[in-house]
Design goal:
Layout: E1 16-17, E2 22-23, E3 40-41, E4 47-54, H1 64-71, E5 75-82, H2 85-98, E6 105-109, H3 110-120, H4 138-142, E7 154-166, H5 167-172, H6 179-185, H7 190-202, E8 209-211, H8 214-223, H9 242-256, H10 268-276, E9 279-285, H11 288-296, E10 304-308, E11 316-323, H12 331-341, H13 344-354, E12 357-358, H14 367-370, H15 382-392, H16 402-418, H17 423-438
Parallel strand pairs: 4-5, 4-6, 8-9
Antiparallel strand pairs: 1-2, 3-4, 6-11, 7-9, 7-10, 7-11, 7-12
Helix pairs in contact: 8-9, 8-16, 9-16, 16-17
Length: 439
């Protein structure tokens, strides 16, 4: 699911895990939503709960809806999935504004949650009365918490950062390929990552590039900072944000030095590059590994590996929430379902099934998370890597138009890579578009 989560989102495809080992096959899903509310009940007290989401949340793959029906025989859960979050969100806003067509449970992406909290919180059930917010990473649940303490969403997954890289290409370029050695080489941060890229370029195997996309690196840089696009008072500060400036400058440097192939992630050319084996590194939030394994295919199994992200500052890229609209016919039952789906055991089951990393801290001590390894990536201990990263992620200040700002800047970075647009002109184009969007 979450096929293309642009900007703050994730390209969500599924990776299948065994009990302690993740296998790298992905399930590419699409879906469509009904236009109207489809929650139903009959004379025998049987009810249907609808869950509206986008991309891939992993519940069906993990068998959770079927399991919930076994535990609650009178409740059937129906999932309504939209392939692309960019199509899903405008429809959700329309439903909220008209008060019709809403599902019993609805997904909200992290890049949108601030806008929903600020403008639509009164239309959702307060989940703080049913879940223990302390069970989640503190920064995660604060993202869905209104100023009055109302919690409109229970955290599903997160995207702790790492670096996916090709061991064989690093060897051919004369670079260290052991994951600990790679982590040491980039311990100084993303600047060190670019230096490693310059070393790679000197002896790069013909037709290969150090990174797929400078915009991905940009998102990682910005995501590792508490202050990104807005300040705590809700003022847009992206033009003067040190995080944005650092990310932009590094992206411009990567483009000018031809360290990047300049591919828009998740699009067919990007998929083809992975299939052809021409990319040496990909900035890797937890959900990205499944994307890489899917498109790289069996030919590159074991040639990929995962190292810790550059520097000492952790970063998060992506994540979602489950919310319960007050207008639903079965608010109590929907709330109970959300509580169950986001509990440690169920989040661990989703991670095992599709590789989406939990936001509920209790899941980190369960074997399916704690001991998880990914054979496709040389048995990288991803349970350990992601859990350590998650614990160090800063509490970011979110804004209502985070997703729009990220998307616009990423587009202009891509223009620098593909079209050779000068950084100053690309920046001017980005700010002009953003200012019109945020008002």
């Amino acid at each position: 699911m979450r096929i293309t989560r642009t900007g703050g989102g994730r390209g969500r495809h599924a990776a299948v895990l065994t009990t302690t080992v993740l296998t790298a096959s992905a399930l590419l899903l699409t879906g469509c939503s009904d236009d109207g509310s489809s929650n139903t009940s009959d004379s025998n007290g049987n009810i249907t709960l609808t869950v509206a989401d986008y991309g891939q949340f992993g519940y069906k793959e993990a068998g959770l809806f079927a399991k919930y029906h076994e535990l609650h025989p009178k409740i059937t859960v129906k999932e309504e999935t939209t392939a692309n979050e960019q199509d899903y969100y405008p429809k959700l806003l329309q439903q909220l504004n008209t008060g019709s067509g809403l599902a019993d449970v609805t997904g909200i992406e992290v890049g949108r949650v601030k806008e929903v909290v600020d403008t639509q919180a009164a239309k959702f059930a307060d989940l703080s009365k049913s879940i223990n917010v302390d069970d989640w990473l503190s920064w995660k649940e604060k993202q869905a918490t209104a100023k009055d303490g109302t919690v409109i969403g229970a955290g599903t997954d997160i995207g702790p950062m790492s670096l996916c890289y090709r061991r064989d290409l690093f060897d051919k370029a004369g670079l260290p390929s052991d994951r600990e050695a790679v982590a040491k080489a980039i311990t100084g941060g993303w600047e060190d990552y670019l230096k490693l890229g310059e070393q790679y370029k000197k002896k790069a195997p013909s037709g290969t590039y150090f990174m797929d996309s400078a915009s991905a690196m940009y998102n990682a840089v910005v995501s590792s900072n508490a202050k990104q696009y807005y300040d705590a008072d809700g003022k847009a500060i992206y033009k003067d944000s040190p995080a944005v400036q650092q990310g932009w400058n590094l992206a411009a440097e990567a483009a000018s030095k031809k360290l990047t192939k300049g591919l828009a992630q998740f699009q067919p050319p990007w998929q083809a590059a992975l299939r052809k084996g021409t990319i040496a590194t990909v900035v890797c939030p937890a959900w990205m590994a499944a994307q890489i394994s899917t498109y790289s295919g069996d030919s590159y199994k074991g040639k990929w590996d995962i190292a810790r992200a550059p520097g000492t500052t952790a970063a998060n890229w992506g994540g979602s929430f489950l919310a319960v609209p007050k207008s639903g016919k079965h608010v109590k039952e929907a709330t109970d379902l959300v509580k169950w789906l986001t509990s440690p055991e169920q989040q661990a089951a989703v991670f095992k099934a599709v590789g989406i990393f939990p936001s509920n801290k209790g899941a980190y001590e369960l074997a399916d998370v704690k001991n998880a390894k990914l054979p496709y990536f040389n048995n990288a201990p991803i349970g350990q890597i992601y859990a350590d990263e998650a614990a160090a992620i800063p509490e970011a200040v979110l804004g209502p138009k985070d997703a729009a700002i990220k998307d616009t800047i990423s587009t202009q970075i891509n223009n620098m890579e593909q079209r050779g647009t000068k950084p100053d002109k690309a920046w001017d184009a980005a700010t002009e578009t953003i200012d019109k969007a945020i008002g």
